[in-house]
Amino acid sequence: MSEELSTYNTLFSLAKARYSCRAFASKPVPMGDIERVLEVARTAPSDCNTQPASVFIISGRALDGLREEMYRAAMHGRARSSDVPPIGTYTGVFQERRRDCGWSLYSAIGIQRGDREASGKQALENFRFFGAPHLTVVTVHEDLAERGLFDTGIYLGHFLLAAQALGIATVPQGAIAHYADIIRQYAPIAPHLRVVCGVSLGYALEDHAANSFRTARAEVSESVVFVS
Residue 193 belongs to what domain range? Predict the structure, then answer.
């Protein structure tokens, strides 16, 4: 096997193995490993090398306070304060994929279709960060608009694969960005930085039912057109 193919297979295996963890052990990740993840993430390309992503790693008592307040806000339906507008309506195949993802999770943990109380309770676990010992808040400078958001997504992809390579479980979470004002009470995020999403990270509870399913991916032919 050529060196190039071996490297490709390593990357492909990491990408295939990565999943969104929804049940974490309380054991913290060593700071050295978090720094290794960040070293990879910072190599991500960006428009004219603007490097727009800034991240805040929240742990310990600060995270405990944020977890409690965020959960309470979501449970009581507090007004949202998103820096980046959420998707208003999911349509067509996007709604189908969203529903499939949700019901795959609910089925794995024994929630019956139509049980809104149980599914709502599970959805609230987003705001407890699924028990993760660390939360990465991903932000982008407002001056860079949509291009900055795009490049921050590339940074996030590098971050997730680097974590996977070190055996660190992750789950990117758009939902928590709905409460950007609460997050700012626990992290020194300047007004010019837009909160894009969070990434909970730690070590997976491997035997937890919420980590037992995997989402499907569309075939290449569904999203790629070759033109010659």
Answer: 29-145+172-222
Span 90-102, average pLDDT = 94
For 29-36, the CB contacts below 8 A with 24+ separation are 29/133, 29/134, 29/168, 29/201, 29/202, 29/203, 33/166, 33/168, 34/134, 34/201, 36/162, 36/166
- Return mean pLDDT, the chain: 95
Can you give the CATH number for the domain in which 71 is found? 3.40.109.10
Whether residue 161 is contained in a domain is answered as no
Q: What digits encode the pLDDT tens for the residues 10-40?
A: 999 999 999 999 999 999 999 999 999 999 9
Number of H helices, E strands in the chain: 7, 4
Q: Give 187's pLDDT tier (boundaries 50, 70, 90).
A: very high
On whether residue 203 sits in a domain, the answer given is yes
Domain count of the fold of the chain: 1
Could you give the CA distance from residue 173 to residue 109 in angstroms, rounded to a whole number?
Answer: 19
